[in-house]
Design goal:
Elements lengths: L11 E7 L4 E9 L5 E10 L7 E7 L14 E4 L4 E5 L4 E8 L2 E9 L2 H5 L10 E5 L2 E5 L3 E6 L5 E6 L17
Antiparallel strand pairs: 1-2, 2-3, 3-4, 5-6, 6-7, 7-8, 9-10, 10-11, 11-12
Length: 176
């Protein structure tokens, strides 16, 4: 192996995912001038010239942890649909998009119990998001939440703990 390029930026990425042939998505930590991490950061690296890699854009979040930092299964990345999604440490599922002008947040969606009680019990570590057609499904330890992928309107939830999910559905008809 040969080092073709080096990049000095505040913080570091713990997860990287190809976004296009010229771009590489990084999720990691921002760091202050003393080197202490202070928030989660999204980075988009321009890898067009492997000898001169640059951080094209960055977005610092107001969270300090996401399971996406250390678990590749905890992040939803779909460049074709321009979607980046993962759970945050405050009980929400965050959905982002990326354009040449930078990252922008599409939605901050409450996960399971957060929607009903307003608090989280740190169950976000096992939260997963996926989409089918125009529906976004967010699975947590206790609920399956459904959102419209175009408007991010809440469609409903099913409690998946008690074995009788129909009585716990909190919305209209479940999208199929």
């Amino acid at each position: 192996p040969m080092i073709l390029s080096a990049l000095k930026i505040p913080g570091f990425s713990t997860y990287m995912h190809p976004w296009s042939s010229q771009l590489l998505l990084g999720i990691g930590y921002n760091a202050n001038e003393q080197g202490r991490t202070d928030s989660v950061k999204l980075s988009m690296f321009n890898i067009t010239n492997p000898s001169f890699v640059t951080e094209q854009d960055k977005y610092n979040l107001d969270i300090y942890y996401t399971p996406a930092l250390y678990d590749h299964k905890a992040i939803m990345v779909e460049p074709a649909r321009n979607l980046i999604g993962f759970a945050s440490d405050d009980g929400y599922y965050l959905v982002f998009a990326y354009r040449q002008s930078g990252f922008y947040q599409l939605a901050k969606l409450p996960i399971g119990e957060t929607r009903f009680s307003g608090h989280t019990d740190n169950y976000f570590n096992n939260t997963r998001g996926l989409y089918v057609g125009d529906s976004l499904y967010i699975f947590s330890d206790t609920y399956l939440d459904v959102y419209d992928l175009n408007t991010f309107e809440y469609q409903g939830s099913i409690n998946i703990i008690d074995g009788n999910p129909a009585q716990y559905f909190h919305g209209g008809l479940m999208p199929m």
